[in-house]
Amino acid sequence: MFQIDVMSRKPVYEQLVDQVERFILRGVLKSDEQLQSVRSLSADLAVNPNTIQRAYSELDRRGVVYSVPGRGCFVSEEAVQRIGDRKRSHLDAFTEEVHELALAGVEKEVVIHCVEEAYEEGEIS
């Protein structure tokens, strides 16, 4: 389920955080569903357990998962909303990037086409 890109400049724990959030948004992981244990995922991915724990702690800090002592981590009921709120906070940077594209002479239709393509790829069947 999880895939780590060892050649990526992005830290492994951030790759895991991104993938868990993506799985939640796509409905692969649902509310109150248990995440794989730290030890199990560590063994599957051949990654240090501390790295997995760091990813899970970051997800907990964001309110995307919650931890039950002795039982593990579970997807929170408001995970989709929390992820959406966090993503919406990136709109200012997106707007600035679109402004830079306009200044660089990239046509509006090209940008709109890219946005439409991204939405089509993100549609859940």
Describe the secondary-structure layout.
Blueprint: H1 12-25, H2 38-45, H3 49-61, E1 65-68, E2 72-75, H4 79-88, H5 91-103, H6 108-122
Antiparallel strand pairs: 1-2
Helix pairs in contact: 1-3, 2-3
Tell me about this structure:
This protein is mainly α and 125 residues long. The protein contains six helices and two strands, in the order H-H-H-E-E-H-H-H. It has helices spanning 12-25, 38-45, 49-61, 79-88, 91-103, 108-122; strands at 65-68, 72-75. Strands 1-2 form a two-stranded antiparallel ribbon. A hairpin with a 3-residue loop joins strand 1 (65-68) and strand 2 (72-75). The longest helix has 15 residues, at 108-122. The chain is elongated and about 55 Å long.
DSSP strand (E) fraction? 5-15%
Q: How many runs of DSSP E, i.e. beta strands?
A: 2
Tell me the radius of gyration: 17 Å
Straight-line distance between termini: 19 Å
Strand-and-helix sequence, N→C? HHHEEHHH
Shape: elongated
The helix tally amounts to 6
- Biggest sheet statistics: 2 strands, antiparallel
What is the averaged pLDDT score?
95
**Helical content class:** 55-70%
Please provide a brief summary of the model.
By secondary structure, this protein is mainly alpha-helical.
Key phrases:
125 residues, mainly alpha, two-stranded antiparallel ribbon, 6 helices, 58% helix, elongated
